[in-house]
Design a protein that fits this description.
The complex is a heterodimer.
Chain A: H1 2-6, H2 11-26, H3 30-38, H4 42-65, H5 72-80, H6 82-115, H7 121-136, H8 140-154, H9 162-165, H10 182-186, H11 188-192, H12 201-204, H13 214-239, H14 242-245, H15 251-257, H16 268-297, H17 303-320, H18 325-364
Helix pairs in contact in A: 2-8, 2-13, 2-16, 3-4, 3-13, 4-13, 4-18, 5-6, 6-16, 6-18, 7-16, 7-17, 8-16, 16-17
Chain B: H1 2-25, E1 36-37, E2 41-46, E3 52-59, E4 68-74, H2 78-86, E5 92-93, E6 100-104, H3 105-108, H4 118-122, E7 131-135, H5 139-144, H6 153-166, H7 175-183, E8 190-197, E9 202-211, E10 217-221, H8 223-232, E11 241-245, E12 259-276, E13 279-295, H9 301-329, H10 337-344, H11 346-349, H12 356-361, E14 364-375
Parallel strand pairs in B: 1-5, 2-6, 6-7, 7-8, 13-14
Antiparallel strand pairs in B: 2-3, 3-4, 8-9, 9-10, 11-12, 12-13
The chains are: A mainly alpha, B alpha/beta.
């Protein structure tokens, strides 16, 4: 209990950690991904994805309501047994590790293409590790503060996209459902990736001061993510014609290249540098919670050892081999499927198990 | 306490180590300003043997302030041209940030020339807001001109395009705009057009060059036509000027005294599209609030404003219709009627997307122009 009080999170910090993971994991890729399948109707897909995401988000809240203290792992051990809890923990550890790795990888690749073409990604990675370690070693409290600071600093960033909007054409967006609803719906699984990350609420919940608002918090985070993605996607669809959209690798950055100020050229360089701040919101919490999961399985004394181990592991791995853009796309594609299983199906399965478990106990007691 | 200090020390050592690493391997693309050549204008064209040529103009920093170095080099691709250009300069060529990008008329006679510019968009370090200008004539001629007592070539061209496009007499097309226009099916590209007036020994803005969808030169527009095009594209802001000859007004001696000009205070353009009888139909409504700026004939506006308005309306409508016929003859759609067709008649547009220029040449465009004079100036 003492530990929990020390690491208490305010409502906004809770929201920002979740929204930070969601936005940073896919903000650059979502507009292109949806446009590949759904064309300029992709914005509808983003809204549908948001509606779908509300269901497992609420389930996560329902599950955590059963846990007065301790994270999901403690709850599972108490209700469903030690082995199921360990299995779940390992799945979560692998999943969070994959999220963190993809986030880091994307950052490195984008820095290499847009900012530092001749600098070794390994050096960049080492530089990124310094703030990562400093923030992650302190646990949830600092994670919350860090996310809050980044949000307050950068919440204006999406608004910059209103500048190229002036040159865009609303006519690109109509007619709605050009090719029918088929493409729009078939793009939905891809867009769910943009919302993955809400399952850290499993771990954050016990630290939250006002627990009754946890459900609202997750939904609010989803909504922030949805609004950001929607704004940026619509600007991209308006600015690029439907045929051009699929020709460009990172429309979200390319569209910034067209902003012109008298005093600075290549304005996108500044924005990509700021994006690194947003990106850090995915790998820092994910690495911490991966370390937390590993520590929990071994009943270890602290996450810090595991954190250092993970950083060293990623560092060595990156030194030896850096995936190309295509390989990272491939990884992202598989992570999307993995994410749908872990974040959308697994919570519902756990919830059903818990409910059945409770029913059985209730029936067992009177009899 | 001591433990945390130790960790801090380790971190500090680590930081120092990283700093050294940076000096070792980072910043490999660093160039000192003294060693850089900064070309401000680039041009591509075909020479008489149909070989691609690349032109650059470098300002020479030093005592002779207006001096420029100019080269023209035969190349096969633009990226390759970088090393070839390097061979001619004293420093490392920093060809990322041109002010203007000139394409010659001869190059524009061929389709798909735009694909040569791939390197500009692929390499993220390049700027994409360079003004793109079509030169009516060989680019070699343009880069051979050494304008005395005038700003250097890149500055002249950029200034010309920027200021004239604000008045609507040409279009402002950056490299990125060109990329957008090429990929937009419902639109054909436009560039600002410049030539060299050898009598005045000066560059001159001609108006607008219209290209086909694949980038081949199709036609040119003069000032007034460019203004009308910009009005149709809803690109013209208020303050553009139009000038018409009013029929029936007498000319005196050598002067043409039948002219009336007005500045546009406010304009509302509305384009409605429809499809019937296997044809696309567009209806363009324009409501113009005009302020007379010039009227060379005598006329009592106070009493007969409506007659003058009707005549101006008629003239404007005629010129717009002529403009559309010019587009249709050349099978181009610089206005972007195709975008309206895609938005409102998607089912009919989609199968014809690839050949929109051809389809548009059979379309019917009606005008409904209304000019209203809201001010006649300070004299009667």
């Amino acid at each position: 209990m003492n530990q929990l009080e020390k690491h208490s999170l305010s409502f906004l910090q809770f929201v920002f950690i979740i929204a930070g993971i969601q936005i940073s994991i896919a903000v650059l890729s979502t507009p292109r991904e949806v446009s590949l399948i759904a064309g300029t109707d992709g914005w509808i897909t983003i809204i549908i994805g948001w509606l779908i995401t509300s269901i497992p988000s609420f389930v996560v809240f329902k599950i955590m309501q059963r846990s007065s203290e301790g994270t999901i792992l403690d709850l599972l051990r108490k209700k469903l047994g030690r082995w199921i809890a360990i299995l779940f923990t390992l799945i979560m550890a692998v999943y969070l590790g994959a999220m963190a790795y993809i986030g880091l990888l994307r950052t490195l690749l984008i820095i290499r293409v847009w900012l530092l073409q001749n600098t070794s990604p390994f050096v960049v990675l080492l530089l990124l590790f310094i703030p990562t370690y400093i923030v992650a070693r302190e646990g949830p409290k600092l994670l919350g503060r860090y996310a809050e600071v980044i949000f307050y600093f950068l919440f204006w960033l999406p608004l910059v996209y209103l500048l190229p909007m002036k040159q865009g054409r609303w006519l690109n967006l109509i007619p709605i459902a050009k090719e029918g609803w088929g493409p729009i719906l078939s793009a939905v699984p891809g867009v769910l990736f943009a919302y993955t990350g809400f399952s850290v609420a499993f771990f954050l919940y016990p630290h939250l001061t006002n627990k009754q608002y946890a459900g609202v918090g997750i939904l609010l985070a989803n909504t922030i993510t949805m609004a950001t993605n929607l704004l940026i996607a619509i600007v991209c669809f308006m600015y690029f014609s439907p045929n051009e959209m699929v020709e460009i690798n990172q429309p979200v950055i390319t569209v910034l290249k067209t902003i012109q100020f008298k005093f600075v050229e290549r304005i996108e360089v500044i924005f990509i540098s700021l994006y690194i701040g947003i990106y850090s919101l995915v790998w820092i919490p994910c690495l911490y919670y991966m370390a937390y999961c590993l520590n929990w399985v071994r009943n270890g004394s602290g996450e810090r050892k595991y954190l250092i181990g993970l950083l060293i592991l990623i560092g060595i791995g990156t030194y030896i081999f850096i995936p190309t853009f295509n390989q990272s796309d491939w990884l992202e594609h598989h992570l999307t499927n993995f994410g749908i299983v872990v974040e959308y199906i697994l919570p519902i399965a756990i919830w059903i198990c818990l409910v059945i478990n409770e029913r059985m106990r209730q029936e067992g007691q009177p009899g | 306490m001591r433990k945390s200090m130790r960790i801090t020390m380790i971190l500090l050592m680590f930081l120092l180590f990283l700093l050294f690493l940076l000096f070792l391997s980072g910043c490999g693309d660093k160039i000192d300003l003294e060693e850089a050549a900064v070309p401000l204008a680039a041009g591509i064209d075909l020479d008489e043997n149909n070989k691609l040529r690349f032109y650059v103009s470098n300002p020479v920093f030093g005592d002779k302030s207006n001096d420029v170095q100019q080269y023209n080099i035969p190349v096969t691709s633009l990226r390759e041209s970088r090393s070839l250009q390097d061979a001619y300069t004293s420093g490392a060529l920093e060809g990322r940030n041109y002010q203007v990008y000139v394409v010659g008329r001869k190059l524009l006679q061929h389709e798909d020339w735009f694909k040569i510019l791939d390197v500009i968009f692929r390499d993220a370090r390049n700027t994409v807001l360079d003004r793109m200008v079509a030169f009516d004539g060989p680019v070699e001629e343009m880069f051979a001109v050494k304008p005395k007592e005038q700003p250097p070539l890149p500055a002249i061209l950029r200034g010309m395009v920027d200021s004239k496009s604000k008045r609507g007499t040409t279009v402002l097309t950056t490299l990125q705009d060109m990329h957008r226009q090429i990929y937009e099916e419902g639109l054909t590209p436009v560039l600002s057009e410049v030539d060299y007036d050898s009598k005045q020994k000066s560059f001159r803005l001609l108006g607008t060059a219209l290209l086909t969808h694949k980038g081949k030169y199709a036609a040119s527009l003069g000032y007034q036509e460019s203004v009308l095009l910009n009005l149709l594209k809803k690109k013209a802001t208020k303050g553009v000027n139009l000038s018409f000859a009013i029929p029936g007004e007498p000319n005196a001696d050598v002067f043409e005294l039948d002219r009336a000009s007005f500045g546009i205070r406010k304009i509302k353009t509305k384009i409605v599209s429809s499809y019937s009888d296997n044809r696309f139909r567009f209806r363009v409504q324009m409501k113009v609030s005009a302020a007379l700026t010039e009227q060379l004939f005598k006329y009592d506006i106070q009493k007969h404003a409506d007659i003058l308005e009707a005549q101006l309306t008629q003239q404007m409508q005629d010129q717009l219709e002529k403009l559309i016929r010019k587009f249709q003859r050349n099978r181009i759609d610089p206005v972007g009627f195709g975008i309206y067709a895609r938005a409102y008649q998607y089912q009919h547009f989609k199968p014809l997307e690839e050949e929109w220029g051809e389809v548009f040449s059979h379309a019917e465009v009606d005008f409904d122009v209304h000019v209203k004079i809201i001010s006649m100036g300070t004299i009667r």
